[in-house]
Structures are given as C-alpha cells and as structure tokens.
Amino acid sequence: MTSEPDGLPGAAHQRTGDGSGAPAPRLVARTVAVEPEAVADLLGLLPAEQPVTWLRRGEGLVGWGQAAVVRTTGAHRFADADSWWSQVVDRAVVRDEVGLPGTGLVAFGSFAFADAPGDSVLVVPSVVVGRRGDRAWVTTVGHDLDHRASVLHPADEPGCPGEVTYADGALDGESWMSAVADAVARIEAGDVDKVVLARDLVATTEHDVDVRWPLRRLATSYPTTWTFHVDGMIGATPEMLLRRERGLVTSRVLAGTIRRTGDDRRDAELAGALARSSKDLEEHEYAVRSVADALGPHCSSMNVPDAPFVLHLPNVMHLASDVAGVVADPAAASSLRLAESLHPSAAVGGTPTDAAVAVISEVERMDRGRYAGPVGWIDAAGDGEWGIALRSAAVDGRTVRLFAGCGIVAGSDPADELAESQAKLLPMRDALG
After folding, report:
1. What region, left, alpha or beta, does residue 19 occupy, with left being phi > 0 and alpha being psi -120 to 50 degrees?
2. Which residue among 4, 37, 157, 239 is the active-site one?
C-alpha cells in the first residue's frame, strides 16, 4: 500500500493486485444537500486533477481527488474489487443527510475487457457532487471525523488539445476487413454464432489532453448517452450495462446499427429498414438472450421485451431493448457483481461467449484494455450504474487511443462493417476537435 497527499486531510490509499495485503482504509464520508442551482453545471465544477464523471442530460455524478483506490487484474478482478469495496464500506463512518442512490460513500470504476492483459480500477473520490431531478448534494470523504467540507466554485476552463493527427492502430482498414472476413468464415463454419470485432485508431495531440475538454463536447453533443471518465478512460456510451436501485435491476441492450444521413425522411426510412433487418434482428436477439441468461440466476422475476425499439443518436441508430428484473438477494448481488455476471455480453463479445472471445483473441490482434469493459459507480448499499465503455478512448498525455466495435454475424459485409466502425469513431474524433 502506498500513500500520497490529497486535497482533504488524510491520504490516498492505493492497493494493487488481488486485494490481499494491508487492510482497507477507514474513511469518513459526509453528504449534505445543496440547492440544484448551485450545481447546475456539474462539469464546470471539475478541476483538472483526478476528475471522475458519470453524466446524462446534465444529471449524475462528478468527483475529484482520491480518498482511496484499488487496482485489480486477472479473472478475479471484479470479485477482488467488490471484496475491497465491502471492506471499505464496513470500516467507514458515513453521515448521509440525503439518502439517495449515489449519496454517501461512492466509488467509480473502470474494468478491463479481458482477464489478461489489462488492469482495472475502483476509485473513491475525495469530493463527489451529484444531481438528480430537483435534488443535489455534495459528499466529502476524508480520514478524520472533522475533515473539512469542500467549497464549490467554478473550475478553470480546460485548454484545447490543439492540432490532432491520426494513425492506424493495431490494424489498418484493409487488414481489419480481412479479420472480419475471417470471423464470418468461422461463423459460417459453425464455430461461433456471433463475434464482436473492435479496431483502434491512435490520435496524437499538439498538447496534453485535459479530459475536461472532450468531456464537455461529448456531453453537449450526445446528451442522451452516459458521458464518463475514470482514470484516463473517457467516452459517451449509449449502452447501460445495468442499473441496480433498491432491488430492481435494469439493462439496456444495443445491437444492430445503421448510420444516420442527416436527412430526417431518409433516416426514418433507414430506421424502418433496421427494424426489419433479419441480420440486425438476429444480432440483437443474441445480445438480449445473453443478458437475460446472465441476470436470470440473480432475479426472482424478469421482464424481457418481445421486440426491440429503434434508439436514435446524433450519428447512428441502434436496435434497443430494456431488460428488467427483481434482484432475489441484494446483499449477495451488488451492482458490481451483477456487472461481472453480464460481462462480456453478446453486444461486446459474441455468442457463445467463450467461443466468441477465443475468436476475438485470435483475429482482432490488439489489446482492448478497458474498452468495452464495465464503467460506472457503486455506492455503499451496492446500488449503482454500470455502462459499457463504448464510443470511448484511453487518454495518456498527448496520446489518445480511440476504439470502435461491430457485431459480426453470418452474411456480414467487411466493407459495411468498416463503415460502421468509422461512424462509431466519430464521437471521440469530434470531441478532440
């Protein structure tokens, strides 16, 4: 365990590996209500150092500083993080005057897609500011009973990253289309039903990227998605892996995509075609079935829609379904453990899961890192929201690695899939400016 100074009294405790070693820190958290007008612009409160974000339509959570952090790796990364979080909660002193999901002690997380390579992180910020409807609050976390409260004020404006240049990532376009053709051949041979293949694009900026710059642009351009940032992983995901709130779990499934043209009449025709597309409906059915099968053992009852609806986003349209269930034993199924049970869903891996992930490791030829892994937050009650890190990028100084993925089924055309991936890269490209 290492300790570093923090903006509040106490220190930022960090543990790595499998969660063994020194005990979890003893934290003190206090949540107080504030007037919603005082936090009307949550992003405007974020300082440049160690910001975390989970926003949709101007509501959600932002935070900064690190009261505690744990990094985990391997096949047990979710279980190790959840165990650490349980210890932190058990040892904490919490004064919560608001009593909503997301108040009191809260941790933000971002998890690797694969068991290896890649690391995962769970962060307890020193300050969390939240807004939900007509309720708003501030939570401060420290290591002393009398730790000082945070004074909210607008932060400095982020600087533009300047000129941006792009280069191919692990595979260029032609090589990636060959990988798609390889996956289609394996599907037609009966090795697997569906495979989600991803590609990356590497951006180099003129100046170090202040993540608040792309965060603002993503939140403004894509208000119906969940804009997130945790430990360098940033994006605007349209896909809620799950929300657990007071015994009810819901999951939004997106699979089946078509690019928008900007012409309303033409887009309406395309939406109708998407809703009738046998290829996209098949892809969507696989994704819905995988979510229902994963949540079923944890739920006493479930509602699975018979047919999807078309979700309209500024750049693309998706087939979407909302799966819901009543958690049988909330104490044994935190939102993080439920996220583990869903990952990787057919929407980001394929079907059957093990066979699809094996194909990905053979033909994709890149390390996804935390792309397409769960990202979100968990509170002391185990409630939380976890999205899938899509329409996303990994930021490291002047280097930004952008990601996009496409669901491949029998009959998928490599050129069409490449065009779809390019559409999915646009949100992050535009956000960099």
Report:
1. left
2. 239
Asked whether the CA dihedral 135, 140, 146, 148 is positive or negative, the reply is negative
Q: Give the number of other CB atoms < 10 A from CB of residue 325.
A: 24
Rounded CA gap, 231 and 389, in Å? 13
Pairing between β-strand 68-73 and β-strand 11-16 as defined by DSSP bridges? parallel
Of 314, 346, 316, 336, nearest to 387 by C-alpha is 336
Cβ–Cβ under 8 Å, residues 84 and 334 = no
83-94, pLDDT tens digit by residue?
999 999 999 999
pLDDT digits (tens, 9 = 90+) for 399-427: 999 999 999 989 899 999 999 999 999 99
Q: Which of 49, 194, 417, 424 is catalytic?
A: 194
Q: How far is CA 367 from the centre of its chain?
A: 17
At 116, is the secondary structure helix, strand, or coil? coil
**Catalytic residue flag (residue 194):** yes
pLDDT one-digit tens code per residue, 173-199: 999 999 999 999 999 999 999 999 999
What pTM was estimated for this model as a whole?
0.89
Tokens (6 digits) for 213: 């710059």
